[in-house]
Every structure is written in structure tokens, then in C-alpha cells.
Amino acid sequence: MNIVLAPDSFKGSLSSAAVCDIIKRAFAAEYEEANVVSVPMADGGEGTLEAIVTATNGTTVTVEAKGPLFEKRQTVYGVVNGDTVIVETASIAGLTLVPNEKRNPLCTTTYGMGEVIRAALDAGYRRFLVALGGSATNDGGFGLLSALGVTFTNEKGERLPPFAASLADIAHVDFATIDARVYESTFLVASDVTNPLCGKNGASFVFGPQKGANAEQVRFLDNALSNYAAKIEAHLRQAYQHEKGAGAAGGLGFAFLTLGGKIVSGAELVAQTVRLEEKIKDAHFVMTGEGRSDEQTLYGKVPLYVATLARKHGAKPILLSGSLGAGFERLYDYFISCDAIATGPMTVDECMERAEELLYIKARNVARLLKTIRKEVSR
């Protein structure tokens, strides 16, 4: 029996690679004859870099770059297929890198993203896959563009510090000073967020509060991003702020659009990069999962994408998740089984703390079931 494991991470507890390892151990204990192939997945958020590097036998390169609070820190970029760099927002300018008491998107920056890209440019790379999810920022990619050499000045001609608090003061923009190697490069940007940059459905109103912004700051940020976008679009003579995904990662999507980047489905991009469909073609069962599955899983999440690919090739998709939430019953249209790993009543914190143990138990049960099915079918 051929089984493909293609889970997302169980956010806050297990990476997608760890999920694969745990399930694989469970099958080794109960159904050793099964051919189990691991393909860790992600959707552009935290864990995307690890998932792609693991699945493609890629490598990581350690670099120093500014974190979301403009502090120096060690981070990494991935290299796959010899010529493609993976840059992950969550590991450079991610929300988890900012302590709760310091979360204020007026004071965070994507500057480190530009520094990491420049380091990769220095190393000779020109092809980039950018994972946008999990940012702590709402600067519209102002920091990124500043680090890449774009000049932003106020009415006095003074350069502005690369934080969202400066966006309202931008009076002049000059892309002529950008690192020329940027225009020799391609940027595929992984995001399942389709929000525009500004307005009630934009970056500030929808995602700002999650990053620590209060109501007054949300209004300020939205107006400031509008000013920033207007200045850039007037300079480049092209509109970007209303394109789908411009508001992703606090507007980082907008900045990559100005560099010629293409925003694509995160799950789809990762699947293509790790050649998931090729590995599913001969599978009998495909197991996927995430930290919590509910009705929102239907909207571009990894498990739905994996289930769709599995069914396309006649494989049976199984969902194993940390928990099942409201509306999960709709997932039965896509999966032959939907299972939460909890073994009894427990808090979310307890479930997360025991995630490895609980997943292993549930995976052993699935392995025992599939082994029995196989024996019955073979009779």
C-alpha cells in the first residue's frame, strides 16, 4: 500500500516535517509493509521554508538581518534546485519574533526582508520564492524597498526611517536608486490572502488588530498606506494597490508587485515546488492535516488543496488535525475521514503540549485500520 503524507504544520506545536516524522513512526510500528512517502507542506506562512527545503533536499544559508523591531538577528534563506532562494517572512519579520508587550505595527519593519534578498543577490541568485504569511508588519513593504535601495524622503528631502509610522510623511519616491540586480530577478510570492492594500478590506483594517494596532492606529495606518501607495504609483505610473494580494503581510504583497512579482496560491506554489502531484499519482491513501480544521479549511488551505490533488489521481484523502471546529462537516465532501487527535476532553494548551504524543496515537489507529483493510481486500 502506498501512502503519501502531505500535512501543513500544526501551528504553535509541530512543523509539517515533524508531523510527517511522527506519522511515519506510527506506521513503522503498526504497518511496516506500507510504503510511506513524506512531503511536508505549507501555504506561505510559518514553516514554508522548512517544508520546501526538507522535501527537495535543499539547503539553508545563515545571514544577519534586521528583525521586525529593527534589531540585528540571525536568520536563514533556503536554496532549492541549485538556483532558487526561499525567503520566509515569518522567520525574518514574523509576529512570533515580537514579544506581546512590544506588538505595535507602527514600529515594525520589513527591512530585514530586503537585507536577506540582497545577501542572496550577492551570492548570485536571481530566482526567488517568497512566503508572505505570519508577518508582524503593516508597512506596505516600505522597509523591504528601502533596504533594496529605493529612496523615500519627506518634504524637506530627508530620508525616512523604515517603519510604518513614517508612511504618512512620504513626499517623494525614487526607484532609480534601487539595486539594479532586483530587475534581473524573478519573484514568485506565495500567499492565499487576496485583500487589497487599503480600505475596509485592506491590510490595516483586516490584519492590523492581530498585530497589536488599536482602532485609532488602524485608521492612521490605512491612511498612511494610501499616501505611500499613491506616491509610488504616481512615480512608477502604474497602479498596484487594488490587485489581489496587495494587502498580504501588511502590504508586503504590494511592494513585491512593484518589483514585478507575481502573487500565487501559497499551497499551490509549495505543491509545485515539492512535486507533490507527481508523488501522489501512485498513492492509495493521502494523509494531510493542520492545527485546526473547520469551514475555513475550504478557502485555500493546504488540506483542501492536497485532498483535491489526491482525488484527481484516485487516491483517498484522510484528514488528521489538532482539532475540528465549526462547520468541519463540510469537509466530508473531500475527505473519507476527518479526525481530531485529542483522546478526550482537554484544553487547547494541553492538546498543543501533548501534540506529538496525541498525533502518534491517532496515526497508529489509522495505520492499524489501513492494514486491516488491506488484509481484507487481499483475501
UniProtKB/TrEMBL annotation:
GO terms for biological process: organic acid phosphorylation. It comes from the Bacteria. The keyword Cell inner membrane does not apply. Keywords: Kinase, Transferase. SUPFAM superfamilies: Glycerate kinase I (SSF110738). InterPro entries: Glyc_kinase_flavodox-like_fold, Glycerate_kinase, Glycerate_kinase_RE-like, Glycerate_kinase_sf. Gene3D superfamilies: Glycerate kinase, domain 1, Glycerate kinase, domain 2. GO terms for molecular function: glycerate kinase activity. Belongs to the glycerate kinase type-1 family. This is Glycerate kinase. The lineage of its organism: Bacteria, Bacillati, Bacillota, Bacilli, Bacillales.
